[in-house]
Amino acid sequence: MKKEDRLEKNPIEEYLRMDRIPHIWCPGCGIGTVVTSFIEALKKNKEDLDKVAVVSGIGCTGRVAGYVKMDSFHTTHGRAVPFATGLKLANPDMKVVVFSGDGDIFGIGGNHFIHAARRNMDILIICVNNFNYAMTGGQVAATTPMTANASTAPYGNYEYSFSLPYLADACGATYVARWTALHMRRVTKSIQEALNHRGLSLIEVITPCVTLYARRNRLGDGLNLLKYYYDQSVIEHGADTRTLDIAYQGKLVCGKFIDKEKPTFLDAMNTHLSNVLGDDYELYGRINNEND
Amino acid sequence: MKKTKADPKGVLTGAHYMDGDHALAEGALAGGCRFFAGYPITPSTETAERFSSRIPHVGGVFIQMEDELASMAALIGASWGGKKPMTVTSGPGFSLMMENLGLAVMMETPLVIANVQRGGPSTGLPTLTGQQDMMQAKYGSHGDYEIIALSPDSPQECFDLTIEALNLAETYRVPVLIMTDECVGHMHEKVIIPPAEEIEIVERKWYTGPKDEYLPYKNDKDLVPFMVKAGDGYRFHTTGLTHDERGYPIITAECQKVNVTHLIEKIRKNADKIIKIEEDQTDDAEILIVSYGITSRVAVRAVQKARRAGIKIGTLRLITAWPFPEKRIRALSKKVKAIVVPEINYGQMVKEVERNSVDRCKIYSVPHLGGWVHDPEDIYKVIKEASK
After folding, report:
1. Number of domains observed in the structure of chain B
2. Do B35 and A86 touch (CB under 8 A)?
3. What is the ipTM of this complex?
4. A55 touching chain B per CB within 8 A
C-alpha cells in the first residue's frame, strides 16, 4: 500500500522522516514516546521547523536525529553538546536541541555537559535515561542504580550513580526537569517551556529499556516498568536537587526543579565586550536573539 | 566555485614583524574565519590569544572549549551553521581531535586545523620543535580517507597558507590541516599583509535548487557535493554513519564502497589542482633534497655547501604534504641518483618518497628526533655520501 493510499495518517508524520520508518527501537522502548512529546511541544509552540535543529550523539537515543524532519545531525559519541554549541554560536537565531541518551551526555560526554551548563549555553538538552548502555547490549552506566544488574556488572552495580538534575543544577543549568516516559503530557509541557527558555535547559526523561535493563533485572515488560513509574514517582516541583538520587526500583522524584533567568553565553559575551570595548565592539548575533 | 575578495574588516594590511602563531591568526581573519574554538596548548596558544583579542573588533566568535574533542565538535557544528571555522593545537591536542576529524571527513565539512608541532610521543617536548605528526595528519583517524595538509616554512607562509587552507576546505568540503612546527610558530619575521582586495576568497559551494530536492551528498562534476547551512529550511540530515546521497545511514558493504571511495577520490582526482611544491635546480640535479617546513630552510645551508663542492643538487619543498606529490617524485626519481629527505622525525614522509621511487634511485633519510632543528652539517654529510 502506498503512503498516500492510507486512510489514516499518523498526526506527527510531517515532522518525521517517514522514508526512514520503521525505526530501530525495540517494542516497549520509551524513546519514541519522548520523540512524540517533543514533536507535540513543537506543534503546540508553533515553532518554525526551519529554525529548529536536532543534534544527537551515539546510542539508541542518538538515532532520534535520523528520524525527525528538521536540520538534524547524528554526531560522535558524547560530542553532541559541543557540536550543538558550535551550531548555536554560528547561527544564534536557531533553536538547537540535543537529543541523546544518558551514556552519551553524562558518561562519555559528561565534561562537555558540565561546561555547557557552566556557560549557560542557550541549548535544550533532552536526555533519555534508560539506566544502561543499551545500543551495545546493556552495560553498566553512570546512571545505573546501585545493585542493578548490567552485562558488565553481572553481580550487580556497586558504583554510585549520577543524579542528573543535581549535577545540572550544580553546574549552572537554568532550567532543569525530570519526568518518566509515563508523564507524556508533562514532558511535552516541559519541552514547550524549555524551548522558550533562554539558557541551558536539561530535561531528563526516565524510560523503559525492556530488552536489556528490564530483562536482565527480571523487571518484566514495558508495562511493568510503567507500573513502577506510576507507583514510585512523586511530583515535587522545586525540590532540593540534592535529594533526587535514584535507588534501585526506588522512589522517582519528578518535576521542574530549576527555572531561572541568567544571561546566556552570547548575552554575557555581548554585554561584557560592549561595556569594555564600547563602540569598538562588533555586536554578535544580538539582532537575531531579540526575536526569541 | 565562486570567488570574492576578503572582507576588509579582518585584514590588517601592512608590513608586520610577527611570529608564525600570530600570522596563523591573521591569516584566519583575512581568510574569512569568524569562528574559532580552541584549547590552550604549547606551542600553539598564541594563535588563540591573538584571535581572541582581534575577533571582538571584527565580528565573530572565539570560544575556549573544555578540551580538543569539544573544539573539533564545535567547529563542525559551526561549519554547518555557515561559518568558516578554525582551531589550532599541538601533538596531544591533535591526538584528541582525531575522533571528530573523522566525523568532519565523513560529513564532508569544511574547516581548518593548524598543528604547531612539538616533539612527541605523549607530552614529549612541549616547548621544542618537531615534525612527528605528519603521518598522523594523514592516517590519524580510523578508517580510509584522504585529507589536505599544508606545511608553511615561515610566518609569511603561515599567513598565506591559512587563507589557502580556508579556501581549499570550502572548495573540497574537507578538513584542511596546516602542519607547521614550534620553530616556525615562534619565529619572528616580516609578514606582509596585502590589501583586502588582493586577497582571493573562495565561497562555499551553496546549493540553490528546490528545497525538497536537496541531497547533501550528491556528487557534482568536480566530485564535491553542494552544501546548505542549518536554518535555511532544507531540513537535511547528516551522520557519521556510512550514508547515501540523502545523508541517510545505509549499513551495507555496497554503500560503504560508494561512500568511502567518494571521500578518497574527490581529493585524489583533484590532486593536481591541490598540490603545491617549490623546486630549485632540479633540471640537471643528480641529488634531490625533499623537505618541508622549517627543515627546508635548514637544508639551504647544506645545499649551498654541496653546490660549492661541485655536487649537482636540486631541492623540492613540499608546500602541500597531503595529498603527496606522487607524480613529481616519480618523475624525478627516474632522473636523479639519490633523494635525501631530512625531517624532524624518525623518517615519515621519506616513506612516501620511497614508495614513489621504488628502486629507481637511492633514498637517504636524515632523521632528527626533535627538540632542535638539524645541524646543516649532518645533512651535508648525507648529501656527500649520496653523491659518491
Report:
1. 2
2. yes
3. 0.97
4. yes
Sheet holding A175-180, edge to edge: A233-235, A252-259, A175-180, A201-206, A124-129, A95-101, A52-56, A71-74, B237-239
Domain boundaries in chain A?
19-261
- Which among B29, B34, B76, B99 is the top mutation candidate for probing chain A, defined by the most A β-carbons within 10 Å of its own β-carbon? B76
Contact check, Cβ <8 Å, A89/B63: yes
Last residue of a domain, one of B163, B187, B202: B202
Q: How far apart are CA A93 and CA B145, in angstroms?
A: 34
Total residue length of chain B: 388
Please give the helix or strand (H or E) that residue A222 lies within, else none.
helix A222-232
Is B262 domain-assigned?
no
Range of the domain at B193: 3-202
Tell me whether strands B277-280 and B313-318 are parallel, antiparallel or unpaired.
antiparallel
Contact between A246 and A213 under an 8 Å Cβ cutoff? The reply is no
Q: Does a structural domain hold residue B221?
A: no
CATH of the domain at B19: 3.40.50.970
Helix (H, G, I), strand (E, B) or coil at B154: coil
Do residues B183 and B287 both lie within one domain? no
Per the CB < 8 A criterion, the answer to whether B308 and B387 are in contact is no
How many beta carbons lie within 10 A of that of residue B388, not counting itself? 6
Predicted pLDDT at A81: 98
How far apart, in whole angstroms, are the C-alpha atoms of residue A52 and residue B351? 48
What integer pLDDT is reported at residue B1 of this predicted model? 79
For A19-261, give the CATH class.
alpha beta
- Model pLDDT for residues A271-292, shown as the tens digit of each residue: 999 999 999 999 998 544 444 4
Distance between CA atoms of residues A41 and A44, nearest Å? 5
Cell, residue B299: 637544508
Residue B246 lies in a domain: no
- Of B156, B187, B202, at which residue does a domain stop? B202
Which of these, A265, A192, A148, A259, lies nearest to A44 by C-alpha position?
Answer: A192
Torsional class of B228: left (φ above 0), alpha (ψ -120 to 50), beta (otherwise): beta
**Cβ B304 vs Cβ B161: under 8 Å:** no
Coil/strand/helix, residue A140: coil
> What pLDDT score does A1 carry?
53
Instruction: Split chain B (388 residues) into runs of 10 and give each run's mean pLDDT.
Output: 94 98 98 98 98 97 98 98 98 98 98 98 97 98 98 98 98 98 98 98 95 94 96 97 97 98 98 98 97 98 97 98 98 98 98 96 98 98 96
In a domain, B131, yes or no: yes
CA count, 13 A, side-chain hemisphere, B107: 30
Chain A interface, mutation test: which of B54, B66, B79, most A Cβ atoms within 10 Å? Answer: B66
